Amino acid sequence: MPQTGELWTTSDVAKYLGVKPGTVSAYRHRGQMPAPVQTLGERTHLWEAATIREWHEHRRPKSDAPPERTDPHEWLVHGERDLYKSEWVRLSKVDVEPPHGSRFEHHVVTMRAAAMTAIIDESGENVGLVWRHRFAPDLWNWELPGGLVDDDEEPIETARREVREELGLVVAEIHHVVSFEPVVGMVRSPHHVFVATGARAASEPTEKNEGAGLEWIALDSIKGRIKAGEISNSGTLVALLHLLAFGIE
Q1: How would DSSP label each residue in 205-241?
Q2: Region at 206 (left for phi over 0; alpha for psi -120 to 50; beta for the rest)
Q3: Tens-place pLDDT, residues 75-102
Q4: Range of weakest confidence among 65-69, 85-89, 118-122, 245-249
């Protein structure tokens, strides 16, 4: 029987589930697991061990029974096997059964979670963007500061760290506005978007390959820049469209 009152940290939960702490953070942000019963500061979350055990027992498929649909439109997952795995990316084949049609293996790419921050200036009229080159699609575009979530790191901590590493800034206030999957059909890569205010210089940037430095871009110019193709990064697009739709929350 589980110990009543036993509390687990993110690392404890990750160890029990057999996943990385960043995966637990992604589950929590997406509402895919029980909410923590206590939060200490910005990054330490605590769960009832009994609650996690019970949740995992119900979500884990039985080894002697095939998965069953809970909705007629649900895709069933029968298993997954790795084709390639590195620090940056995992390529696997997932044994899936669509609602209508034959069971087959579908390629899936799994990448680490990412976090990015829209920094708003004191006037509330400008957002901090960086003009940078992306070699994979060979394009230049305006982007937010951001990067990959490290193991045992909360996305909000990643957001703060990347702002300091890329720009040498610290922010007074920062809050999460949305999480999304940029290529939801066959890629697992949760992206966490934050909005921050009260930026001030704190140190020299330590990342030297992250573009040409911060520039304050008028929010009322963003629609035109999107239309002109100057903003192509998914996280930046989602963050800026969120700001245009809902304002600075």
Answers
A1: -S-SSS-S-EEEEEGGGHHHHHHTT----HHHHHHHH
A2: alpha
A3: 999 889 999 999 899 999 999 999 998 8
A4: 65-69
Residue 234 CA, distance from chain mean position: 12
The whole-model pTM stands at 0.76
Give CA–CA dist 177/9, Å, rounded: 24
* Angstrom distance (rounded) from CA 132 to CA 139: 8
Question: Measured between alpha carbons, how far is residue 72 from residues 58, 69, 185 in Å?
Answer: 20, 7, 18
Residues 152 and 11: beta-carbon distance below 8 Å: yes
Q: Which ranges in 67-179 belong to alpha helices (H)?
A: 155-167
Structure tokens of 87? 């620090």
Which residues, in sequence order, are bridge partners of residue 140?
A: 133
Distance from C-alpha of 85 to C-alpha of 20, rounded to nearest angstrom: 14
Name the burial class of residue 242, with classes exposed (0-12), middle (13-18) and buried (19+) by CB atoms within 10 angstroms of its CB.
middle
Count of other CB atoms within 10 angstroms of residue 209: 7
Give the Cβ contact number of residue 150 at 10 Å.
15
Non-local (6+) Cβ contacts of 246 within 8 A are: 177
Give the whole-angstrom CA distance, residue 7 versus residue 29.
19
Question: What is the torsional sign of CA 53, 30, 151, 105?
Answer: positive
Contact 142, 231 (CB under 8 A): yes
**DSSP summary character for residue 159:** H
